[in-house]
Amino acid sequence: MKLSRQLHVTTAISAIDFLASAVPELSKGRLKDAMSKGAVQLLGKPVKRLRRSQQMLKPGDSLALHYDADILQRQSAPAVLLFDEKAYSIWFKPAGMLSQGNEWGDHLSLLRFAEQHFTPLRQVFLLHRLDREASGLVMLAHTKQAAAALSKLIATQQITKTYQIRVKGQLSSELLQQGSICIPLDNKPSESRFTVQAYDANSDSSVVAVQLITGRKHQIRRHFAAVDHPVLGDPQYGKNNKHAAGLALQAIGLRFNCPLRRRLQTFELPAALLLEQF
Length: 278
Prior knowledge:
Elements: E1 2-8, E2 13-14, H1 15-22, H2 28-36, E3 40-43, E4 48-49, E5 56-57, E6 62-68, H3 69-73, E7 80-84, E8 88-93, H4 110-118, E9 125-126, E10 135-141, H5 144-155, E11 160-168, H6 173-178, E12 180-181, E13 192-200, E14 205-212, H7 219-226, E15 249-258, E16 263-268
Parallel strand pairs: 10-15
Antiparallel strand pairs: 1-6, 2-5, 3-4, 3-6, 7-8, 8-10, 9-10, 11-14, 11-15, 12-13, 13-14, 15-16
């Protein structure tokens, strides 16, 4: 079942009793599950996820319910805290986990996973994203000061993010000589720099290390599909690039001069978490 409703409260009532009367298609058990997984929002400035079933609502309140039974039943491997720098932390996000939630919930998101891990000791701020199908390193901040400082580094391209991908085919000598793909995306300049690490003739595929100079949506996947070397296992871009192990794209490195610790920081994905194809 999938439904979306915007609901308006006219009398003082508990959240679960209001939802049960306003959405009779769903049992109280399903509504409580949807609330706990972030699928109910209390509209206002700011919009907040409403998780407590017994929270009292008042006349004039408005709720948004976005219920998708398929999404709420999904599961993924847990995220892993790799490096804890107190003001910020580096996590391993597994494939199948969102970086942050959306209107349909946040139970399968790194942000929510980290919030539950640190609550009530630290705040959690997402600094950058990684595609749901991809896996690898994601950095979170835990103070507003750290979030502002690190976000500035990202905005000014002072954090080197290294990715590893396996793509279909063998890259041409011309493409290798260029060492970058500069095809505009979404009418904006975009650049992906790369080096080929290996070519496997048996599978006719290449392992490529990539550094993003810009950060457009699905940039690596779109760039390599555009030059006829789609990432293996990509369900959205490219043709004849199926791969049983899923999307062959991992964020494997972060490197930057830390404005908080005033030193060069280098974080690498442990070998035990590398995809088998790498």
